[in-house]
Amino acid sequence: MANKLPAQFADLEPFADWAMPTERARYDKRLASTMDELQAFYDAAFARFEEAAEYMKKVELDGISDEDKHLLWLYCSLVTVSFPIEVWRQPRVPDSGASSFDAVLEPAI
Amino acid sequence: MAHFTKPDGSWTEHFGLDTGPVSYEDSISPEHFDLEREAIFRRTWLNVGRVEDVPKVGSYFTKELDVIGTSVVIVRSSKEDVRAFYNVCRHRGNKLVWQDYPGEETSGTCRQFTCKYHGWRYDLEGALKFVQQESEFFDLDKNDYGLMPVHCDVWEGFIFVNFDREQPTPLKEYMGKLGAGLEGYPFHEMTQVHKYRAEIGSNWKLFIDAFVEFYHAPVLHAKQAVDDESRKLQEYGYEAIAYDVDGPHGMVSSWGGMAPPKDLNMVKPIERVLRSGLFGPWDAPDVGLEELPPAVNPVRHKAWGMDSFLFFPNFMVLIWKPNWVLTYHYWPTSHNTHIFEGTCYFVPPKTAFERLGQELAVVTFKEYSLQDGNTLEATQTMLESRAVTEFPLNDQEVLLRLLHTTARKYIEDYKSKQPATPVRISAAS
To answer: Are residues B282 and B392 in the same domain?
Structure first.
């Protein structure tokens, strides 16, 4: 499977398509999603958030495994999705019109 | 009610600025913008990168500077210093360094620069080393055809260029008291870089205006806090801990109790778990700093959260209490458009959890900036209507007043040094 997660978080596999390596891709997926889709992902990922946070405190980035990398990408997407869910109540930043703000450089995980 | 002490009644008067309403004609006039290109952007030190961008001999990057209609190449020379050249071949003016698209910036490592057109080659110090079919030329002395240098210097790891045709004020001197007061800050430890870029539909000064005052924050960004917190912030309003001004540069020192917050209920659910937010990861990494340099948290206030420095004309450095840095650059493309760059610098994270905390800080910055950026387009179009021509600025907007006053002063100085338009003498009859 393309985006396999650590065994402990196998229940999040239905949302593994959120495990994407760049902020730009995560943001594009957010804009292309409905609020229901964002809410479903947020609820599932947040339910395992405390446990995943404790787990990731022990994951060294140096020599990180593919599974752990996918978990980190997935939770980077939770960061992206937290704004529409916790703040905006819509996928886009309100009043942001046509403006865009693009990552041109970001550290690879 | 005042929460922080002001000198002499107001910051604005303390820094010798007037207090009257301000005209924004300087942000809507194409003619004024043409003067700014010459008087400001051609004559001041402009930050174009960091020494980490050119880590070893032969590392280079290009920078497109629409505002002065040129492109430069910055390179680590074989003498290990950083140099800048106009990005143009001396043979027939082709752009020397570019990839695929002539207008796009590029970077890499090389031993020599080779022109794509006729294969002329230059070494890392800009000397012309090879001319294709040299014997076909007429009395060509390669010593006369090196790359055209641009003034280049480094301050605290930040690379600056200056296009002044004469010898400019040395960079260190130009950075003044505020620059000196930042020296020793461990910028070099913060090599984890996230960079964003946006095209903004406003004059370059208007975005700086938005980022050197926080009077707008409790209102424009109200939704970014939880409801109770948002209400409190609006009632409280905004007051800076302190401001400082030296020559064309200024800084604002700000409080910020969010890293970590006094009460976890003040922050959003994701921030509680990741222990991070707008002010950065709450658990600051060790950067080996025993005491902050004097310009950072200048009044050594307990509630200090971050400082914003504006180095004229278009470079801002934000230093956050939990040991990370954000820089802003505003590159004009016309009188009512510019490119904004926001770059976050962190100490490289060791664990996946630390990386995630940084991601939250970066994305929060992006969400705020998207709100700010679009508001500016709305401001620009209405300023251009000239329905209203004078605007009152308050004391918490002192740095905007400084910016516009300084920019106008550069233009007045420039104009006063130009030779008077020659009087046409008609031929004697």
So the answer is: yes
Q: Is residue B238 part of a domain?
A: yes
User: For residue B109, what are the domain limits?
Assistant: 46-167
> Are the CB atoms for B410 and B43 separated by under 8 Å?
yes
| Binding-face residues of B in 252-311 toward A, CB within 8 A | 268-270, 273-274
Q: Among B133, B167, B201, identify where a domain stops.
A: B167
**Does B142 reach chain A within 8 Å, measured CB to CB?**
no
Q: Distance of alpha carbon B279 from its chain centroid, rounded? A: 20
Same domain membership, residue B228 and residue B256: yes
Of B353, B360, B363, the CB nearest to A57: B353
**Are residues B127 and B50 both part of a single domain?**
yes
State the Cα–Cα distance between residues B289 and B255, nearest whole angstrom.
20
Specify which of B50-54, B280-284, B372-376 reaches the highest per-range mean pLDDT: B50-54
Domain count for chain A: 1
Alpha-carbon distances of B120 from B55, B94, B97, B104, B113, rounded to whole Å: 26, 11, 12, 22, 8
Residue A60 lies in a domain: yes
Given a contact cutoff of 8 angstroms between Cβ atoms, the answer to whether A91 and A81 are in contact is no
| B125 and B50 co-located in one domain | yes
Least confident of A87-101, B80-94, B320-334: A87-101
| Amino acid present at B9 | G
Residue A44 has pLDDT above 80, yes or no: yes
Shortest CA gap A71–chain B (Å): 9
| In the predicted structure, residue B229 carries a pLDDT above the cut 90 | no
Cα(first)–Cα(last) distance of chain B, in Å? Answer: 76
Q: Are residues B116 and B214 in the same domain?
A: no
Higher-confidence residue of B374 and B179: namely B179
Q: Identify whether residues B190 and B63 lie together within a single domain.
A: no
pTM: 0.93
Calculate how close chain A gets to B274, using CA atoms only, in Å. 7
pLDDT tens digit sequence for B78-100? 999 999 999 999 999 999 999 98
